[in-house]
Design the sequence.
């Protein structure tokens, strides 16, 4: 610094002398003055540095940092989490500094006190955190344990570095499965609540009665008024079924029940009657479930019942005779014999066909 200031002053004097045209005898005097100026500047700068160093206050913390601190590595320490039975695995390098103690103070193990202080500080943090956030908690511990703090006995200052926190792989897998189950259960619960709400809406509001059902349908199909009118009977039946009730009397005439479905039986050699008539020829709505020994004459009885002809009705013989003529026209003598055995009809004369009334007779 002295050399730098001396050079600067010399340059200033040279520039000043050249600009003002100093006489030649002034230049040697100026050159002799420069060493004196350099000595004065050096003395002033040295005295200022000494005053600054003497007034500086020593920092205890800086002195501690300069000192070489002992350390100990701890590994595989179980620390509790917020979930029971799921512990973190803790590892760190513990550093400490032993403080001055009174003369009558007991002898201590500074390493043990420092490790215990660090673990207590770490436990206060981990026991409030869920086990699934081990990486996040590890960074928190690095910050919380990175400061020298006094232990509970007041004998050591302790801190930790190179903190590592993890969760065992088996516990991580269990928590993953439990998380997936909870998510599925939440979805299922929401779906069930939605279904329950929908059933309540349909049962207690939409299908409460026929009128509500019609209004609901019309609100969804407001441009199909005629179609809604055509569906009143269907909506009435739907409303009655939803309430376990019969159709309301004002809407009974609109309910059109479909005819019962009768599956046709294909005739084959095993299902034909003794007369060769298939069961499929039985009129609609006639009950033939008298047993497994139905005959052709039973079928004739079914025809009579279907036409509402009683056994003592006068037109019964005429109807039977027409059946005989029909069987004769189709060349079915076996059918004719069955009918005669059942109803006791005598063999008609050759002109019976002419005597039998035509289809226009009643």
Sequence:
């Amino acid at each position: 610094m002295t050399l730098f200031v001396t050079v600067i002053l010399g340059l200033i004097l040279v520039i000043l002398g050249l600009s003002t045209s100093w006489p030649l005898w002034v230049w040697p005097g100026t050159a002799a003055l420069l060493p004196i100026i350099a000595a004065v500047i050096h003395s002033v700068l040295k005295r200022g540095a000494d005053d600054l160093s003497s007034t500086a206050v020593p920092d205890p913390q800086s002195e501690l940092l300069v000192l070489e601190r002992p350390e100990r590595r701890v590994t595989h320490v179980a620390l509790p989490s917020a979930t029971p039975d799921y512990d973190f695995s803790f590892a760190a390098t513990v550093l400490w500094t032993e403080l001055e103690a009174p003369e009558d103070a007991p002898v201590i193990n500074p390493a043990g006190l420092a490790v215990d202080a660090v673990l207590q500080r770490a436990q206060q943090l981990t026991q409030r955190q869920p086990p699934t956030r081990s990486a996040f908690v590890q960074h928190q511990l690095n910050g919380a344990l990175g400061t020298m703090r006094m232990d509970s006995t007041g004998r050591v200052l302790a801190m930790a570095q190179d903190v590592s926190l993890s969760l065992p792989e088996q516990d991580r897998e269990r928590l993953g499965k439990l998380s997936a189950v909870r998510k599925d259960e939440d979805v299922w619960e929401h779906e069930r609540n939605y279904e329950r709400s929908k059933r309540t809406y349909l049962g207690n509001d939409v299908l409460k009665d026929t009128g509500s059902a019609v209004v609901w349908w019309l609100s969804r199909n407001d441009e199909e008024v005629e179609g809604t009118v055509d569906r009143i009977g269907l909506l009435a039946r739907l409303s009655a079924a939803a309430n376990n009730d019969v159709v309301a009397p004002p809407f009974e005439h609109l309910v059109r029940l479909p005819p019962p479905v009768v599956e046709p039986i294909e005739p084959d050699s095993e299902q034909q009657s003794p007369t060769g008539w298939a069961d499929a020829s039985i009129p609609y709505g006639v009950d033939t479930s008298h047993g497994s020994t139905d005959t052709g004459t039973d079928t004739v009885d079914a025809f009579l019942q279907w036409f509402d002809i009683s056994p003592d009705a006068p037109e019964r013989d005429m109807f039977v005779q027409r059946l005989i003529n029909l069987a004769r026209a189709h060349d079915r003598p076996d059918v004719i014999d069955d009918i005669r055995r059942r109803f006791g009809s005598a063999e008609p004369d050759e002109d019976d066909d002419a005597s039998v009334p035509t289809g226009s007779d009643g």
